[in-house]
Write a structure and sequence with these properties.
- It contains seven helices and six strands.
- It has 182 residues and is of the alpha/beta class.
- Helix 1 packs across helix 7.
- The chain has a single domain, classed as Rossmann fold (3-Layer(aba) Sandwich), CATH 3.40.50.
- The radius of gyration is 16 Å and the shape is globular.
- Flavin mononucleotide (FMN) binds next to loops.
Length: 182
């Protein structure tokens, strides 16, 4: 059996839209591939900013939680990031989770899905550059989901309605991800 694909949520803030959007994205993945998916909430992986005395590229890891995070990513067949754009970048909690590891990302097939007022393209470009740096293999398609002003101000989000036009590109991106899994 193939190892699960981790879908890592980029946002950890209170009242985030991320769980809802991630479930919607995961639904497209499940419908368009035969892969198994596991959603990862970084609030359940409270990786401190200052707990590792060695650089991850050298090791060893001091914290049992870092080792568990390492095992989690190592055992994944691929990773999908579903993340908002924050101030033209991606959330600090996501960078911290990436930076706790190094070799674990090498060769990992990765799909980046972003959202924001204009789809989060600047966030996607930054995260793609970081994934290149850790030698992951990114899907070339990076779907961006546009949030309307009223949704960013608290109106109820209906992903099926708001993001309907993005279903085909997300399905294509998942298909590309699946083709990269050995
Ligand atoms: C700290 C912060 C910075 C933001 N910066 C941007 C931005 O650069 N571009 C954008 O389109 N939206 C930006 N937004 C709006 C977010 O896209 C929107 O609030 C979204 O719901 C955040 O995802 P989350 O609710 O899952 O945390 C920002 C939101 C926050 C909280």
């Amino acid at each position: 059996m193939t190892s699960p694909v981790l879908i890592i949520m980029g946002s950890v803030r209170a009242n985030r839209l991320c769980p809802q959007i991630t479930r919607w994205v995961a639904g497209i993945g499940r419908a368009s591939t035969s892969l198994e998916y596991e959603i990862i909430d970084l609030t359940q992986w409270s990786l401190p900013m200052d707990d590792e005395p060695h650089i991850p590229a050298v090791g060893p890891y001091a914290s049992a939680l870092t080792q568990a995070w390492s095992d989690k990513v190592t055992n994944a067949s691929a990773v999908v990031f579903v993340t908002p754009q924050y101030n033209w970048g991606y959330p600090a909690a996501l960078k911290n989770a990436v930076d706790h590891l190094y070799r674990e990302w090498h060769g990992k097939p990765v799909l980046i899905v972003t959202y924001g007022g204009h789809g989060g393209g600047k966030c996607a470009a930054q995260l793609k550059q970081v994934m290149d740096g850790v030698k992951a293999k990114s899907v070339t398609l990076m779907p961006g989901l546009e949030l309307s002003d009223d949704i960013m101000r608290g109106a109820v989000l209906n992903s099926d309605v708001q993001f309907a036009a993005k279903v085909p590109i997300i399905a294509d991106a998942f298909a590309q991800l699946a083709s990269m899994i050995r």
